[in-house]
Predict the structure.
Amino acid sequence: MIVDVCTNVRETLQKINIKGEMHFDIPLSSLTTIRTGGPAAAAVYPRLFRDITELIPRLREAGIPYTVMGAGSNILADDAGYPGCIIDMKHMNRMTVRGLYVCAEAGIRLEQAIRRTTALMLSGLEYLSGIPGTIGGAVACNAGSFGQEICSLIDWVDYIDSEGYLRRFHRGDAPFAYRCSPFQTSDIIVETALRMTPGKTSEIVSRISRARSEREKRGHYSYPSAGSVFRNPDGIEITAGELIEQIGLKGYAVGGAQVSKKHGNIIINTGSATTGEIKKLIDFVRSRVQEETGILLEREIVYLE
Ligand SMILES: Cc1cc2nc3c(=O)[nH]c(=O)nc-3n(C[C@H](O)[C@H](O)[C@H](O)COP(=O)(O)OP(=O)(O)OC[C@H]3O[C@@H](n4cnc5c(N)ncnc54)[C@H](O)[C@@H]3O)c2cc1C
């Protein structure tokens, strides 16, 4: 069934003559940090926001589903693949700096942005050091770490809505929340202006090193993963990782998917995991936590299906 759908998407996209780089039957395991997922029917790689404003109405007219992807570090893609078009932002990776303001296109990697701002003695992003995502993904998910969230830096965000129109969101237009942004799933963030603060290079660098070594301790880089599986529960002191650890699930595995032995809220792909196994493990952990503690954990990882 999915093979037929992919063939239709491919034929339709070839007919409507989309501008720019486009690939077909892309394994999602190659686009996600947890390294699982079947083929996406197509992927396009815009270079300019106009490529996207032209693309969206065409995809909508043709009835082709689409989704935007940054570095795929928070995404769990279905084993059956995705019967639509991935808009991969990796070529939209320019960044300009004016005084304390950094304008970053959505596809620039956080690490690259942090390297450049550190060299300019601009502080603010270093708390996110070691997160393997893009600026666009970080804004969409309101990424945060060590008590800091990216929303505190945002001045404005340019995005393309579901009709294909370019719009500007200004700080304060709508609230961000813990791992939540006001952007809808169909909005495509193209550029963000961040207001940084002046800092001393040595202090910024030392915060970066602390963040990285903390992540290494938590085993973030030992195996492929998609970061934290669950949000920390509201209104209580204990984290999702601590709850999972307390009920003895660290190291618990389903096939190639395993709750990390170093951190309860991370599921790793030990080599041969499928998304099906990871989802089974997520469901199991969630229901065990609920049975044992009465707390229903909410998923942070995004399912792409
Ligand atoms: C080892 C590891 C450690 C991590 N640590 C942290 C952490 O400390 N804190 C934290 O918050 N997260 C963490 N994460 C999760 C993840 O890296 C972040 O949420 C990151 O910001 C996601 O960025 P991305 O570009 O990979 O987004 P993706 O995974 O590609 O996408 C995630 C979601 O954002 C949407 N999206 C992506 N780009 C855009 C765009 N341009 N416009 C609109 N929507 C978009 C996607 O459609 C999807 O719904 C970690 C992940 C890993 C693997």
In short: The helical segments are 2-16, 49-62, 110-119, 135-141, 201-217, 240-246, 275-293.
